[in-house]
Specification:
The strands form 3 sheets. This protein has a 7-stranded mixed β-sheet with strand order 3-4-5-6-7-8-9, with helices on both faces. Strands 11-10-12-14-13 form a 5-stranded mixed β-sheet, with helices on both faces. The protein is globular. Helix 1 runs antiparallel to helix 2, helix 4 (180-186) packs across helix 5 and helix 6 (207-216) packs parallel to helix 7 (229-241). Helix content is 35%, strand content 26%. The protein has helices at 12-39, 58-74, 103-108, 180-186, 189-198, 207-216, 229-241, 268-275; strands spanning 47-49, 55-57, 79-82, 93-101, 114-121, 124-132, 137-142, 147-153, 156-162, 174-176, 201-203, 221-224, 245-247, 260-263. It has 280 residues and is α+β, with helices and mostly antiparallel strands. Strand 6 and strand 7 form a beta hairpin.
Length: 280
């Protein structure tokens, strides 16, 4: 399993269209950042609980509303699927939104959260933006144009292209995973432990950030036993455009499989073999 195929780069006209969609995605992220930055650590933040017991804040709903309003004006023919107000990914063009990925961090004052925006065409992400203003970072990618990050360093904004690592042995790999209980419920506690034991070092950066770190080459593997499509849609194009690989835990190259594994590409098959089938 490999990353994006540079031999199938989009035509000049198609590249122009994607560049316009990416520019719009950045504008959507700018609007989201204005809302989330103002509400982060706000003393009057309103927090509710959804039916699945996950938290939602007034910032989550405000961001998704703002992005939907902008898309309705700029891309009225496109479908929208978002965490807070629903929708589904079908044929054609769909914008997939997670207004705040890492809401638990957001409401507790932990700065590791982001707005996730993807454009999906016929089931495959072609544009992705991940904006984490409290971390001072924004990642983005579009098909055939590579993966990029902009970060605030020493008071200045720096933009650079990113690539996945070249670590080729699972025993040398740096892994990020998520909560053990989610593995026990949705995949396998034993599989989680096998993967941790097979790698050099493991941490739990969590949510979007671990997959962005794979795209940057800072870590080599990120695995989640359970995800929703909006949790990972932009991360699929980001990781693959960085030269890595992205799939669900069965190996299907999709953001809609209910789980996620991103890697530098060299380690993907080995990680899937260690994880095995759910329940193993």
């Amino acid at each position: 399993m490999t990353g994006s195929d540079r031999s199938s780069a989009p035509s000049p006209d198609r590249a122009t269209d994607l560049a316009a969609d990416l520019a719009l995605a950045h504008r959507l992220a700018d609007a989201a950042d204005g809302i989330t930055s103002a509400r982060f650590r706000a003393l009057d933040l309103v927090v509710d609980r959804k039916p699945d017991r996950t938290p939602v804040t007034d910032a989550d709903t405000a961001v998704e509303t703002a992005i939907r309003d902008l898309l309705a004006a700029e891309r009225p023919a496109d479908a929208i699927a978002g965490e807070e107000f629903g929708g589904s990914v079908g044929a054609g063009r769909t914008w997939v939104l997670d207004p705040i990925d890492g809401t638990k961090n957001f409401l507790r004052g932990v700065p590791a959260w982001a707005t996730l925006i993807a454009l999906v065409e016929d089931g495959r992400p072609v544009v992705g933006v991940v904006s984490a203003p409290a971390l001072g970072r924004r990642w983005w990618a579009s098909t055939g144009a590579g993966a990029w990050v902009r970060s605030a360093e020493a008071g200045a904004s720096r933009e650079r292209r990113i690539t996945a690592s070249r670590v080729a042995d699972l025993g040398d790999a740096y892994l990020s995973t998520t909560h053990l209980n989610s593995w026990a419920e949705h995949h396998s506690r034993e599989a989680y432990l096998r993967l941790v034991d097979a790698t050099w070092e493991s941490r739990a950066f969590g949510d979007f950030w671990q997959h962005c770190l794979v795209a940057e080459g800072a870590i080599d593997l990120a695995a989640e036993a359970v995800v929703n499509p909006w949790d990972v849609a932009p991360l699929q194009v980001l990781v693959t455009e960085a030269g890595g690989a992205f799939s669900d835990l069965s190996g299907a190259e999709t953001f809609q499989g209910g789980s996620a594994l991103s890697s530098n590409g060299l380690l993907h098959r080995a990680a899937l073999d260690v994880l095995g089938a759910p329940g193993e």
